[in-house]
Amino acid sequence: MSAARFGRRRLLLSVGGAALLAGAGWATNWLVAYNRHELSNAGTLDFTRRLKIPPLLDPSPSGDGSKRYDLTLAPGRTELLPGKKTDTWGANGSYLAPTLRARRGDKVTMNVRNNLPEPTTLHWHGMHLPASTDGGPHQTINAGATWRPRWTVRQPASTLWYHPHPHGSTGSHVYRGVAGMIILDDEESDRNGLPSAYGIDDIPLVIQDKNFHDDGSLDFSETSLSDDIAAVDNMGVLGDTILVNGTYDPYFEVTTRRVRLRLLNGSNARIYQLGFPGDRSFHLVATDNGVLKRPQALTRLRLAPGERAEIVVEFKPGEEAVLHSFKPDLGIGFPDRRFVGGDDTFDIIALRAAATLKDSPPLPTQIAGAPAAIEVPGSAKKRKFTFVGIQINGKTMDMNRVDEVVAAGATEIWEIERGDGWLHAFHLHGATFNVLEVNGREPPAHMRGPKDTAFLPVTGTIKLAVRFDTLTDDKTPYMYHCHVLRHEDQGMMGQFLVVEPGEEGNVSTTLTGGSASHHAHGPQEEESPR
Ligand code: C2O
Ligand code: CU
Ligand code: CU
To answer: pLDDT tens across 268-312, in order?
Structure first.
């Protein structure tokens, strides 16, 4: 998009309401578009297709004592809609990817073969690992090449995920279907009393929205508005069709009194407001990077792209509960909220309880293994990031520019400010944060756990306590960015190095040659962490 066009879009967004007063033809178009932009699948589903559960990938022992996970990315054709074939991409299958399961302390090797027709990368979202193994935009895997990063799992039990991250094409690679879940276990999670039988009472739910053409092919178009009124439609793809684990119209048969749902918003742009009709309550037990100290009773849960949440839902024999997405709480009013999905509602999946249910252990009152709240020393360094349009602090992503340099092991305050009406979700690689404040107030319950991704309030600020890991690399950066994938692809991303304390001022903030143009040609090994 040209700068002029970009500027015009922003301008129109800010005067969205006044736009009604413009020319009559334009206003008619606008009204048509406005009406067309309220999406809902209510009443269109019968919940007749059994939820697909992504298979768990069995690792193979590898010579060096690590567990080796073999992943092959390839194109394929998938029946996503009944009776239609869709060209898709996947890992070890034609759509989505297997669930990877590992334990704290495990040495893992990811053996990633790229059989896609173009270069990609594979990023381990939420993982604490050496920057060279992170799978961000610098770790390109060319078509036909294999990438073999290794690291040691050194973080608490949590639900992470993995997806491509090639600069400029993350949105299309994820939309085509490359995404999978990662489940990390540890000693506490073995005995924390939460449902944990994968696919039985511990269920991965990868929630995605898509648009399809009539022939079943994926519709990549980023707006259904005529060009004249595309002003406020800046999110990229907002689909009218919901898939859960690649299943259209899904149901899951509940066989136990309590079920843990591991929710992942794997959508490019859509923000969901999950809950059940009738305000049935459920318990939040974990956020992005680990479990909460105590289960939190909730009736609604907002999930921005890239965020995860684990909830426990209780069932009575024979009942059905439909997980629903209500109009999301975006903090945006008429008319703009309509164009960013703010008026959309969806049925997600029917959870159908069998006539008799196996007993489940009671929900624990304290969850073992909850990471301690991040303590912020008085001397903590503060950094401020302003998100406006597709820029962070007035800049777009430059693969050769290091934006921030952080001392290994540091705890810092990061303030993320949203300076306009666009929707953004802040994500940081290789570190965990706690949200301290949302617009100066205590964050809502669902934002209080250990996190790596957070929704930004409209023209407001979130204040984060970020704890950086101790792994250092003075040449390979980690990323922070907006997880609305169109924004990320257009450059709403910055890079930071983590270096030995005291070395912050001594490293080059220009990445020449080496890192920025470092591509994996053919099989290659990465160093394992210290
Ligand atoms: Cu889920 Cu930098 O990404
Ligand atoms: Cu990430
Ligand atoms: Cu954004």
So the answer is: 999 999 999 999 999 999 999 999 999 999 999 999 999 999 999
Distance CA 56, CA 59 (A): 9
- Taking the centre of ligand 3 as the mean of its atom positions, its distance from the CA of residue 522, in whole angstroms, is 34
Quick one: which ligand is closest to 121's CA? 1
| Closest CA to ligand 1's atom 3 | 125
The ligand placed nearest to the CA atom of residue 422 is 3
- Nearest CA among 491, 515, 516, 511 for reference residue 397: 491
Cis peptide before 59 (omega within 30 of 0): no
Cβ–Cβ under 8 Å, residues 39 and 235: no
What pLDDT sits at residue 522? Answer: 40
Q: Could you tell me if 135 and 162 are in contact, meaning their C-beta atoms sit under 8 angstroms apart?
A: yes
Q: Which residues line ligand 1 (CB under 6 A)?
A: 123, 125, 163, 165, 306, 427, 429, 479, 481, 483
Q: Does residue 179 have a pLDDT over 80?
A: yes
Query: So what's the pLDDT on residue 513?
Result: 57
Cβ atoms 272, 303 nearer than 8 A:
yes
Of the chain, the end-to-end C-alpha distance in Å amounts to: 43
Residue 5 in this model has a pLDDT that exceeds 50: no
What atom of ligand 1 comes closest to residue 306's alpha carbon? 1
Residue 56 is classified by DSSP as B
Give the number of the atom of ligand 1 that is nearest the alpha carbon of residue 488: 2
The total of other beta-carbon atoms located within 10 Å of residue 365's CB is 9
Q: Of all protein residues, whose CA lies closest to atom 1 belonging to ligand 1?
A: 125
Q: Which two tokens stand for residue 378?
A: 């008085």
Residue 21 pLDDT class (50, 70, 90 cuts): low
Protein residues with C-beta less than 5 angstroms from the ion ligand 2: 125, 429
Q: Specify whether the CB–CB gap between 306 and 208 falls below 8 A.
A: no
pLDDT at 488: 97
Ordered by where they begin, the domains of the chain are 8-42+200-358 (2.60.40.420), 49-185 (2.60.40.420), 382-526 (2.60.40.420)
The number of the ligand 1 atom at minimal distance from the alpha carbon of 493 is 2
User: Which atom number of ligand 1 is nearest to the Cα of residue 453?
Assistant: 1
Whether the CB-CB separation of 330 and 481 falls below 8 Å is answered with: no
Round to whole Å and give the CA distance between 382 and 364.
37
Tokens of 455: 């929704």
Query: β-pairing, 107-114 with 150-152?
Result: antiparallel
Look up the pTM and report it. Answer: 0.92
- What proportions of the chain, in percent to the nearest 5, are helix, strand and coil? 15, 40, 45
